[in-house]
Design goal:
Elements (H helix, E strand, L loop, with lengths): L2 E5 L2 E3 L5 E8 L8 E6 L6 E6 L6 E3 L7 E6 L4 E6 L8 E8 L4 E3 L3 E5 L2
Length: about 120
């Protein structure tokens, strides 16, 4: 059974930092690319960042470039998203995603709120 469990969200002031984690199980984590998405209230879910299976290739949406860093630890089956210089517009539920060839798997999400 595939499970993706996000953690690390919370309330942070503008300019602050958070690190999200996604614990994966039920599939061979180290052989597949992974992604982070987010969904703000009233908006569609959007891709934030992706990482290759070995971690050597990453991609970022323009709105997080230079501020967020995606990484992974294949020995711990864990995906990370380091978020720095957070802005109120970053407020959203953040989701871990495994884009398998059969279907997309999602975690339950973790809420990030950026507010003073």
């Amino acid at each position: 059974q595939v499970r993706l469990v996000e953690s690390g969200g919370g309330l942070v002031q503008p300019g602050g930092s958070l690190r999200l984690s996604c614990a994966a199980s039920g599939f061979t984590f180290g052989t597949t690319a992974m992604r982070w998405y987010r969904q703000a209230p009233g908006k569609e879910r959007e891709l934030v960042a992706s990482i290759s299976s070995g971690g050597g290739t990453t991609m970022y949406a323009d709105f997080v470039k230079g501020r967020f860093t995606i990484s992974r630890d294949n020995t711990k089956n864990t995906l990370y998203l380091q978020m720095n210089s957070l802005k109120p517009d970053d407020t959203a539920v953040y989701y871990c995603n495994w884009p398998s060839i059969w279907r997309a798997y999602w975690g339950q999400g973790t809420q990030v709120t950026v507010s003073s």
